[in-house]
Automatic annotation (TrEMBL):
<feature type="region of interest" description="Disordered">
    <location>
        <begin position="37"/>
        <end position="57"/>
    </location>
</feature>
<dbReference type="InterPro" id="IPR027417">
    <property type="entry name" value="P-loop_NTPase"/>
</dbReference>
<dbReference type="InterPro" id="IPR045063">
    <property type="entry name" value="Dynamin_N"/>
</dbReference>
<feature type="domain" description="Dynamin N-terminal">
    <location>
        <begin position="185"/>
        <end position="385"/>
    </location>
</feature>
<protein>
    <recommendedName>
        <fullName>Dynamin N-terminal domain-containing protein</fullName>
    </recommendedName>
</protein>
<dbReference type="Pfam" id="PF00350">
    <property type="entry name" value="Dynamin_N"/>
</dbReference>
<feature type="compositionally biased region" description="Low complexity">
    <location>
        <begin position="41"/>
        <end position="57"/>
    </location>
</feature>
Length: 930
């Protein structure tokens, strides 16, 4: 989820969606230059600015598990790694929390189950009775908080604020759910050794390997079951509808993206999806989710094709693209890290150029209890792909949680530690790992002390050694493809045997095993301890037993505290809107009692408030007018341009009809008709200035007619918001403001108000005409001289040969360009002036500036405009009628009663909120108790 730091302007990188400072020159993740492209960045990332009803990212819930493909493509070319990384946009695709009623039902169910809560927590949990009592107390507190959200006054809360309240409450309910399954998810880059580590944790080698690609291609759940349950592999396929929607999203993303690398990646993904659907769709895609079950005996032969991702260059149809997830049910052996009932999730390697894999990883991080973050020594902290994964962990796991909670949830494991075989390689590894702490919780290093000397903030693991040692201790035979690794394992046992003797002095002084099956159990045990896996296993078990209680309870308390604080702020906000400005509950009650004693004065306050709201509504309409007029290609701009075009077209039609031929004079006699006359047989006389004056006069008349529509559009840019406030909220409806009073001067006020609105329309036309015609009178700009190319072309007809009728026809053709010069950029040059002058006239309706003295140095004074004067008259008349009209007094008293009732409800909610914040709730009665 995105996170916006307080008091710091931030934006997001348009390439990698990384949150950066607004003044940053480069993105610290992808290295893209940001300075000088602020406009592009702002357009690409509008959600970072939190406009209008957008939800602050600090409380933003995770994105859903089915996010559009176009949100998953990173549109940039990485100079170091040619893979595409997924993109995450938090705002457009929000996870909608359950409504309060569902949350109440969930909490009520947990309260009813609280009598059997003991079995869900370790028997040896320190102070177990006290901790379970605290858990029950938080359950009751959360239910009481959820019931507050169902009160009638909460219907007045803005949807954005209600969303945040529901989110915090749903997160608290989730944290307090002691009956749900807990999952540990293993994430990391491709080739980090995640599957090997996971196999060592469960003590069974069941995962595909060495496929030449990214190996694990789907989310793989390992459910540890009891010995009495059968081991099986359950392959869950997509439904036909889900598959079709995925194909549709991919096609849309391909059409919408312009980045060549993104298009290539999406094109490949689409081809794989379509090919998989054509080949296997009839078998596995159903209207209802289809599940294929494989017993343990078929895992090796058939199971890998549902888990293993083929190599990128493979042209074979990929049935894996139709798989939603795979779940293994395996026995929790004696060496298993977790007890039966636990779930571990192996995720595809991230940042490996596989769009689907990155999407799965991001989706799975929306819902976690604990994660094992795995780094292989082939991509330490200075690898940008590793950094991207850590950045994703920071947004999904670290942000939105307290540092202590997040620090306990994340277990950082560095595999292939056996390849760190010199001081130089150790210094290099530590130097590249330390920068990764910036994406981990602030105090992560204080909670994690690992390694031989407890001086590492990560678990240094020899992953393959841990797996081989575990298999040896479980006395499992190695698969044929593990035979060579078994021999290499024996060699490593011999090479580190002095270190093993230090761990277990009871080992034989020398080791002489040549084959894997000849390594003794004690040697396997020592090698397992040397691998570093027991430390991770021990801490993980501790977290999922003792620390899990503390982490969940802390998370629930944090979310409830945030919800109650936000609810309290909402109460004060609504009380302030009702004219109560105290922030102290006792002062608030005193103020309420004082207000009730002043019922008569309150009537006049209500009248003043209602008339003042007319000023506010008028000002809001002016703001909306400014917004509309200031936008490019606004309706007034289009109407004005259309009016000018129509006027020009009208005059050009008149030109072709010959209305301006009188300014082109040509002889009508030919040489044959008068052979004796050789001089003056042909002549052309052009009255250019007369033509220009006639064109301007005709254009002015035509434009005056066409300006009606722009004037109407300009007036409606203000009058439409006014009409909305009259009809919808009634703030500018004289009758509703006067609470139904009528007759006498009130009718005159209504007539004056209607006349004022008609005057606005007339003023818009006057302004359009005044500005346009005054601009057109500027002969320097809109009266071309003889030197102008368009006029010169017309005068060239004097010396042009041809018949008189041809000369006239050519002259008509040349009058059009002259008209274009006369019109020029008249619409563009007058648009802003018209809008500003009309806005000035609207301002004068509220307040006018006048000079009362003839002295030149006298200061002006401000007087009420027509609208302000109308409101003042309305207020004066209503205050007089209060004294004589029983109906008006009853209406005002009813409003005051409603207001006081609303205030009372918010005050009561405020009291309940403060009581819950101080934890003053009754202790839960246990089921079965009296």
């Amino acid at each position: 989820m995105q996170f916006i730091r307080q008091k710091q302007q931030v934006t997001t990188c348009p390439q990698c969606d990384n949150v950066v400072r607004l003044d940053a020159e480069f993105c610290n993740i992808c290295g893209k230059r940001l300075k000088g492209s602020n406009s592009k960045t702002a357009q690409a990332t509008p959600q970072t600015q939190l406009p209008q009803t957008q939800i602050p990212a600090s409380v933003m819930p995770p994105a859903p598990l089915t996010e559009p493909i176009e949100e998953q493509v990173e549109e940039y070319v990485d100079d170091v790694d040619e893979d595409l990384f997924t993109r995450e946009d938090a705002i457009p695709h929000q996870h909608i929390p359950a409504p309060p009623a569902e949350i109440i039902n969930q909490l009520q169910h947990l309260i009813e189950q609280s009598g059997q809560m003991e079995k869900y927590f370790p028997a040896d949990l320190p102070d177990k009775a006290e901790k379970l009592s605290a858990w029950r107390k938080q359950l009751q507190r959360a239910r009481a908080c959820a019931e507050l959200f169902e009160l009638p006054q909460m219907l007045q809360v803005d949807p954005q604020q209600a969303f945040k309240l529901r989110y915090h409450l749903s997160e608290a309910a989730r944290a307090l759910d002691f009956t749900r399954e807990y999952t540990v998810k293993v994430i990391g880059h491709a080739g980090a050794g995640k599957s090997t580590l996971l196999a060592a944790l469960i003590g069974q080698d069941i995962f595909p390997r060495l496929a030449g690609g990214a190996v694990t291609g789907v989310r793989t759940r390992i459910r540890l079951c009891g010995e009495q349950e059968p081991e099986e592999m359950r392959v869950h396929f997509m439904t036909r509808a889900t598959y079709d929607e995925l194909v549709k999203q991919t096609q849309q993303a391909l059409q919408n993206t312009s980045n060549p690398r993104a298009r290539e990646a999406l094109s490949n993904e689409l081809a794989i999806l379509v090919k998989a659907g054509e080949t296997y769709g009839e078998i596995y895609l159903r209207s209802e989710p289809h599940i294929e079950t494989l017993p343990r005996s078929r895992w090796k032969d058939e199971g890998s094709r549902f888990v293993e991702e083929p190599a990128r260059d493979s042209q074979e149809p990929r049935v894996i693209r139709l798989v939603d997830y795979v779940e293994y049910k395996v026995h929790a052996g004696s060496r298993s890290a977790l007890p039966p009932g636990s779930i571990l999730v192996d995720l595809p390697g991230g940042s490996a150029g596989q769009l689907r894999h990155d999407a799965i990883m991001r989706e799975e991080l929306n819902d976690v209890d604990a994660i094992i973050l795995v780094i292989g020594n082939n991509r330490f902290g200075d690898d940008d792909r590793t950094q991207r994964i850590f950045e994703l962990v920071r947004r999904k796991i670290v942000q939105g949680r307290s540092a202590e909670v997040a620090a306990r949830m994340v277990f950082l494991a560095v595999t292939h530690w056996d390849e760190i075989n010199s001081f130089a390689s150790l210094d290099k590894a530590l130097g590249s790992l330390r920068p990764l702490l910036r994406d981990l919780p602030a105090d992560y290093a204080s909670y994690h002390h690992h390694g031989p000397n407890n001086d590492y903030f990560f678990y240094p693991l020899r992953g393959l050694d841990a797996l081989m040692a575990t298999l040896g201790l479980e006395k499992q035979k190695l698969d044929p493809d593990r035979a060579q690794e078994g021999r290499e394992y024996v060699g490593r046992v011999l090479s580190v045997y002095p270190e093993l003797l230090q761990l277990d002095p009871s080992l034989p002084s020398t080791a002489n095993a040549q084959d894997f099956h000849r390594v003794s159990q004690k040697q396997h045990e020592a090698m397992l301890r040397f691998s570093g896996l027991p430390a991770l296993t021990r801490d993980l078990q501790s977290f999922l037993t003792d620390n899990r209680y503390e982490v969940q309870l802390r998370q629930a308390e944090t979310q409830l505290a945030m919800a109650l604080q936000h609810l309290e702020d909402l109460c004060w906000e609504h009380l302030n809107q009702n004219g109560i400005h105290s922030r102290d509950l006792q002062e608030l009650e005193q103020e309420m009692h004082a207000r009730k004693r002043k019922r008569g004065a309150t009537r006049f306050e209500l009248l003043q408030k209602r008339t003042n709201e007319m000023h506010t509504a008028w000002a809001d309409a002016l703001k909306q007018f400014d917004t509309v007029i200031s936008t490019d290609n606004n309706p007034f701009h289009r109407a004005l341009a259309t009016a000018h075009e129509r006027a020009m077209r009208r005059i050009k039609i008149r030109i072709m009809q010959g209305y301006f031929d009188v300014f082109i004079k040509s002889s009508s006699r030919s040489q044959e008709a008068s052979p004796a006359m050789e001089i003056g047989t042909r002549w052309v006389d052009i009255d250019g200035w007369g033509l220009i004056r006639a064109l301007r006069l005709s254009f002015s008349a035509a434009l005056e007619r066409e300006l009606n529509e722009p004037a109407r559009t300009l007036a409606e840019a203000f009058l439409i918001p006014i009409a909305h406030k009259e009809e919808i909220d009634g703030t500018l409806d004289i009758t509703r403001v006067a609470l139904g009073e009528f007759g006498g001067e009130l009718d005159d006020i209504q007539k004056s108000y209607n006349k004022l609105k008609r005057g606005i329309r007339e003023k818009a036309r006057d302004v359009c005409l005044y500005v346009t015609m005054s601009e057109l009178l500027n002969e320097e700009k809109y009266a071309p001289s003889k030197d102008d190319p368009a006029v010169s072309a017309l005068y060239h007809l004097i010396s042009a040969p041809g018949k008189p009728e041809d000369i006239v026809q050519q002259a008509r053709q040349l009058m059009g360009p002259i008209l274009d010069v006369i019109c020029g950029n008249l619409a563009q040059s007058t648009e802003k002036r018209i809008a500003h002058l009309f806005r000035y006239e609207l301002d004068k309706l509220e307040e006018r500036t006048i000079y009362e003295s003839d002295r030149l140095d006298a200061n002006p004074s401000c007087v009420a405009g027509a609208f302000a004067d109308l409101i003042n008259r309305l207020y004066s008349l209503l205050t007089e009628r209060v004294l004589t009209s029983d109906s008006l007094r009853q209406q005002l008293d009813m409003l005051q009663d409603q207001r006081e009732a609303s205030v009372d409800r918010w005050v009561e909610l405020l009291r309940e909120t403060e009581m819950l914040r101080s934890c003053k709730v009754l202790t839960l009665t246990q089921p079965g108790e009296a």
